[in-house]
Design goal:
This protein has seven domains: 178 residues, Sandwich (Jelly Rolls); 140 residues, Jelly Rolls (Sandwich), CATH 2.60.120; 116 residues, Ribonuclease Inhibitor (Leucine-rich repeat, LRR (right-handed beta-alpha superhelix)), CATH 3.80.10.10; 92 residues, Phosphorylase Kinase, domain 1, CATH 3.30.200.20; 197 residues, Transferase(Phosphotransferase) domain 1 (Transferase(Phosphotransferase), domain 1), CATH 1.10.510; 128 residues, Jelly Rolls (Sandwich); 94 residues, no CATH class. Helix content is 17%, strand content 28%. The protein is built from 17 helices and 63 strands. Strand 51, helix 16 and strand 52 form a beta-alpha-beta unit. The longest helix is centred in the middle third of the chain and has 21 residues. About 11% of the residues have low confidence. It is a single-pass type I membrane protein.
Length: 1095
């Protein structure tokens, strides 16, 4: 929590030189930016400061001395700043005593040190965890501080300044003060720290106090005295005050506040930064008045009405502290109240208060042994990468070339070290052996010399070792050679002229041993023959496909094996498994979740599928096909990286044991999405692509339950839309594969249609494609088709739906599915036709689901939305009712309720008739939020307008369009765009005073205009008006220029420069003029004529 103090100037802090000097044992005080080797004792506080130069781990920082403001003198430790213009994360490493609790304070005084008058914003990290975001007031005299109370489990801490793109980070001072370990405890939260939210000396209104007055160097702020309070004070020094473990400063405890009204509570309020913040309170009090024998002071303490502690009976000049256990949370506003007890004769008092906010340091830190080892490696080789701060965390700032894993104790361990091409010289350092969890070590392409050391054999987890292209000599340790022969280690030692595998080695050999050495020579030969056969077939069958193929390297990101380890957290979480291999959950550096499919080394089938899937996904892109992000093709390691689908696959959601039952409309949406994807493959790709393995487990669902087709390992492209292909290779999955393909080997689009039909039956019934009953396996079609032919659909539909579906929609899907699985392949529809039918079925379900009722009223249709709930709209309704228009509640029209993504009103109209359609929106603070929403208004499938509301509750917003419907209904839709809940007051298709019911708004008269009017009624609106029929009362008034020689100007602003406007101007001359008087005019828009009377 940032604290802002107007305390840079010397005179603002109380100077307490007369107080006896306190012990500074354990204090660490760094003056940041001060020259190296400079040390001094502060004249203001007596604190001993040293330069920070030896504690930073970069040689690119900049030191700058600030200039005083006016004639004032800066506090000595704030005269310099150190800025970090290079690198994203720059860290200090400060040695501490492990297990000691510290108050740690970082101070920042901008002072316009960079002459930009633009204070930056950046993040402050503490090791692996976010500590705070540093923001500044523009006032140059402010100091911003951030404090935490932290107990280090290691013998060092690492405060880091992180550049977030909003200016160069800098710092003025870092201070550590050891505390009593038994104080400031975050119970039940061992990985939590306390961040200072506020610390007030309540009876003091003008001075700040810190060391030497406070032995822990806490900074006590003065507090503005409330009008409901009065101040109490006494004179007490450190020797006279009986202290507790918190040791509040005696000068702070010498003052207190109490209510002016002795019967009233003493109350203190504050506002939380976030409703979920967790607060710890520390209330310090002592009696500052000597009470008479008949006087008592006792009080109870509450927080937001909940009892905190009591009764409290302060003792004279004896410090006492009340603290909250556990933390307090769940409110935006807090009120601390102190009530005197019934027997108390005096009101409550409070001397000082500290409030801390809990920060959860949840990021795992790297094991200190690993940190020490990698630090020694860094120093030995002079590595100049981004090696600062915690080596492993956070992931965005992990040291370049490292990969880490989190062990069972939530400790990060280094598992991969890549120092290839790093200009390393000298021997292989022994510190590498201290990285006991290392699996991957790459020291290739350097200038390392000496022997390959025996200590590498101690790394029992090592699976990959590459020391190629160095100057190593001698023998490779025998155990490493043996482990490589047994397939336990991938060992690469080429291009080391003096390095041998055996004592008798002679000429240079290729010594790269595969990771999986268990393949026999025969299998390798078979692999090569099969690959050659595949390439031959590909050249003949997929020539057109090959011409369209785009290079993987040019279109998709390539990943190294070390990156795959990092992305998958060392293959930690398996989310799928198939013939190709396992699928792992992963995270890219930008925190994007991905799925990583790893080729099983033993799968020849998987290798072919890897080739097929990678090549196909390079050229197909559709919202209903899973997207390929990148790939890895490094030696034996082959992997595909896809977008992550948060809701797994359709198969998982249809399992009987899954308690989250897919509703009928959800199943239809999934079917429609899958049909879109398949339609793209069949009809959107040239040549068309057959999936050949459609099944529920290959239909994946994202976080919004949108479906995407996946697993293209068996997919094939064919020369034209009607081509069949004879295949001898099995394709598809039992239960979903087309029997016609299994019989004849003919592959075409209708094979996929059959599989899609089976999927539809699985969606309809909730059963598997292969059903086991009575000890026998049955295909789903054998069980459902006889029932369907008997006209019984209720016993076919998944009983878990409990009848909650449209029977018409269900019958339509059953008919679609039946056509898909027709034994006569020629009778099966194209997927494009299936898609149309499924969308119609979905529409039937939505009409049923949201209670559409047919209404035959045509023409003057009015939907008054939620009429019975809009009490505040009553006056407006009465005005409208006076027009004799019949209003009906929206229940006649509503299809979708408000908690869906969109709200739809269906209103029957006369097809081919042009309508003025008006939507009226009146907020009126109906939701008591005082926050009008913003949402989109659609007409059918098209965006009509974006509704933005004024904050004024009395404003009525309307949107109008003129529209001719080709159908016998219109659908007005409200679309939630994430900026508040859509609502509506009225939907109108109508006429009244104005036969078309246009709303004519008044216009503020310009000072350059004068008004003309007539009282004559029955203005002659003859047929010359072209059928526009402007309202008679509107045509009785007009405007004309005050200066008869001047033009009449009218201005408006476009919402967008590309908007197109149609202007309709209505004229009626109602003045009687002399015979020699004429009125004629030309019209221009932006100086271009649109009408000329003189031509």
């Amino acid at each position: 929590m940032l604290l802002h103090f107007l305390s840079v100037l010397l005179g603002v802090f109380a100077i307490l030189v007369s107080i006896q000097a306190q012990d500074q044992s354990g204090f660490i005080s760094l003056d940041c930016g001060q020259y190296e080797d400079v040390s001094y004792s502060s004249l203001e506080t007596g604190i001993n400061y040293i330069s920070d130069a030896k504690f930073i781990d970069t040689d690119t920082s900049v030191s700058k001395m600030l200039q005083p403001i006016g004639n004032d003198t800066l506090l000595q430790e704030l005269e310099y700043v150190r800025s970090f213009p290079n690198g994203d994360r720059n860290c200090y490493r400060i040695n501490v005593t492990s297990g000691t609790k510290y108050l740690i304070r970082a101070s920042f005084h901008y002072g316009n040190y960079d002459d930009l008058n633009d204070p930056p914003q950046f993040d402050l990290h503490f090791g692996a965890n976010l500590w705070d975001t540093v923001k500044f007031f523009s006032n140059e005299s402010y100091i911003t501080t951030s404090e935490i109370i932290y107990t280090s489990s290691q013998d060092y801490i690492q405060p880091c300044l992180v550049n977030t793109g909003s200016g160069i980070p800098f710092i003025s001072a870092i201070e550590l003060r050891p505390l009593n370990n038994s104080n400031y405890v975050t119970y039940y939260s061992p990985k939590s720290v306390l961040s200072t939210f506020m610390r007030y000396d309540l009876g003091n209104t003008d001075l700040y106090y810190r060391y030497q007055a406070d032995v822990y160097d806490r900074i006590w702020e003065p507090y503005e005295l409330s009008s409901d309070w009065r101040q109490l004070s006494t004179s007490v020094n450190n020797d006279e005050l009986v202290q507790n473990g918190y040791k509040p400063a005696a000068i702070v405890m010498s003052t207190a506040v109490t209510p002016v009204n002795e019967s009233a509570p003493l109350q203190l309020d504050w506002v939380a930064d976030n409703v979920n913040d967790k607060y710890y309170l520390y209330l310090h009090y002592t009696e500052v008045e000597k009470l008479a024998g008949n006087e008592t002071r006792a009080f109870n303490i509450t927080l937001n009405g909940d009892s905190l502690y009591g009764p409290v009976i302060p003792k004279y000049r004896e410090a006492h502290t009340v603290y909250s256990t556990p933390s307090k949370t769940g409110s935006k506003r807090y009120r601390l109240s102190l009530f005197k007890t019934e027997n108390s004769t005096l009101p409550p008092i409070l001397n000082a208060i500290e409030i801390y906010k809990r920060i959860d340091f949840s990021q795992s830190e790297t094991l200190q042994d690993d940190v020490n080892a990698i630090t020694n490696i860094k120093n030995a080789y002079g590595v100049t990468r981004n090696w600062q701060g915690d080596p492993c965390s956070p992931v965005n700032y992990m040291w370049e070339g490292l990969n880490c894993n989190i062990d069972g104790n939530n400790i990060s361990r280094i598992t991969s070290l890549d120092l290839s091409s790093s200009e390393l010289t000298g021997n292989v350092v022994s510190s590498i052996s201290k990285l006991t969890m290392l699996q991957y070590l790459d020291l290739s392409n350097n200038s390392l010399n000496g022997h390959l050391p025996d200590f590498l054999m101690q790394l029992r987890s090592l699976k990959f070792l590459n020391v190629e292209k160095n100057k190593l000599t001698g023998l490779v340790p025998s155990e490493l050679v043996e482990r490589s022969k047994r397939g336990l280690l991938s060992l690469s030692v080429d291009d080391n002229p003096g390095l041998c595998m055996t004592a008798s080695c002679g000429k240079k050999k290729n010594l790269s041993v595969p990771l999986i050495a268990s393949f026999s020579a025969l299998v390798v030969v078979i692999l090569l023959i099969s690959l050659g056969y595949w390439l031959f077939r590909r050249s003949k069958v997929m020539s057109t496909y090959s011409k369209k193929k785009v290079s993987m390297k040019s279109k998709h990101q390539t990943f190294r094996y070390t990156e795959i380890l990092n992305i998958t957290d060392n293959f930690k979480t398996i989310i799928g498994d198939g013939g190709f291999g396992k699928v792992y959950l992963g995270f890219l550096q930008n925190h994007t979740q991905v799925a990583v499919k790893i080729l099983s080394p033993s799968s020849m089938q998987g290798y072919k599928e890897f080739q097929s899937e990678a090549q196909l996904l390079m050229i197909v892109h559709h919202r209903n096909l899973v997207s390929l992000i990148g790939y890895c093709d490094e030696g034996e390691i082959k992997a595909l990286i896809y977008e992550y689908m948060a809701n797994g696959n359709l198969q998982q959601h249809l399992l009987v044991e899954n308690s989250n039952i897919l509703q009928w409309n959800e199943r239809l949406n999934i079917a429609v999405d899958a049909a879109y994807g398949l339609d793209y493959l069949h009809n959107g790709c040239k040549p068309p692509i057959m999936h050949r393995d459609l099944k529920p487990s290959n239909i994946l669902l994202d976080e919004n339950m949108h479906a995407k087709i996946a697993d293209f390992g068996l997919s094939r492209a064919f020369g034209n839309d009607i081509d069949s292909h004879i295949s001898t290779r099995p394709a598809g999955t039992l239960g979903y594969a087309d029997p016609e393909f299994q019989r004849s080997g003919n592959t075409n689009k209708k094979n996929d249609v059959y599989s899609f039909g089976v999927i539809l039956f699985v969606l309809i019934t909730g059963r598997q494609a292969i059903v086991r009953a009575g000890g026998e396996n049955y295909h789903i079609l054998e069980r459902v088709i006889p029932t369907i032919k008997g006209g019984d659909i209720q016993n076919v539909i998944d009983p878990r739906l409990e009848g909650e579906f449209s029977i018409n929609s269900a019958w339509k899907v059953v008919e679609i599915a039946m056509s898909c699985v027709s034994p006569n392949v020629a009778e099966r529809p194209d997927i494009s036709q299936i898609l149309i039918e499924l969308k119609e079925s979905l529409s039937l379900e939505m009409v049923h689901r949201h209670g559409e009722r047919e209404n035959d009223e045509v023409g003057n249709g009015v939907g008054q939305c939620q009429l019975e709930e809009w009490d505040q709209f009553e006056e407006y309704l009465r005005e409208k009712m006076a027009t004799n228009t019949d209003y009906m509640t929206a229940s006649h029209y509503r299809l979708h309720r408000i908690h869906f993504q969109f709200d739809v009103f269906r209103i029957n109209v006369a097809s081919g008739t042009k309508y003025l359609i008006r939507a009226s929106i009146y907020y009126g603070n109906y939701d008591n939020l005082n926050k009008p929403p913003q949402f989109d208004l659609h007409l059918g499938a098209n965006v009509w307008d974006t509704v933005k509301l004024f904050s004024n509750e009395s404003d009525i917003t309307t949107r109008e369009i003129i529209y001719t419907s080709p159908l016998n209904y219109i659908q007005t839709c409200l679309v939630n765009t994430g900026n508040g809940i859509p609502f509506i007051s009225a939907v109108e298709l109508r006429y009244n005073d104005d036969v078309y019911d246009r709303i004519w708004s008044p216009y503020k008269l310009s000072s350059d205009w004068r008004k003309l009017s007539t009282s004559v009624k029955n203005v002659n609106l003859s047929s010359d008006w072209g059928g526009y029929k402007p309202l008679e009362i509107v045509m009785r008034t007009a405007v004309t220029p005050v200066n008869a020689s001047a033009p009449l100007h009218f201005h408006w602003d476009a919402d967008n420069v590309n908007d197109r406007f149609y202007v309709f101007m209505h004229f009626y001359d109602f003045e009687e003029r002399a015979a020699n008087a004429t009125r004629a005019l030309n019209i221009t828009v932006n100086d271009m004529y649109i009408f000329r009377k003189d031509t």
